[in-house]
From TrEMBL:
Pfam families: YjbQ (PF01894)
Family to which this protein belongs: Belongs to the UPF0047 family.
Species name: Aquipseudomonas ullengensis
The protein, known as: YjbQ family protein
Amino acid sequence: MWQQRMITLRARARGFHLVSDELVTALPELARCKVGLLHLWLQHTSASLTINENADGAVRRDFERFFNRLVPQGQDGYEHDYEGPDDLPAHFKSSLLGCQLSLPITSGRLALGTWQGIYLGEHRDQAGARRVLATLQGEFD
């Protein structure tokens, strides 16, 4: 069985945010999936999805500091700056981290490791809500 749903994540400040619970809450049919895959596709070019530490908020803050050093704003030579100095750096970060995840489902739950969570990387200073297309495939009760 296949199911697909558009999920709108609320607007967030720049940084890395755990969105695992928000995504699972928006997919009640996940609980009926015995075995399957959940594919998440972020429909934006200035944000990202990734999996990492879900317990210590310092990890998310360190991610933000690391990526800001890796791709700093205000560098000379960026041609694409139509929406401000964070525009092209946000696109770079999105490309580095990616905009999609495929997650296994076991017994109605995401089969994440003990310390794993889904991050939304918000790379714009003033971003709005973000859309995630969730495609669920699997064997259902």
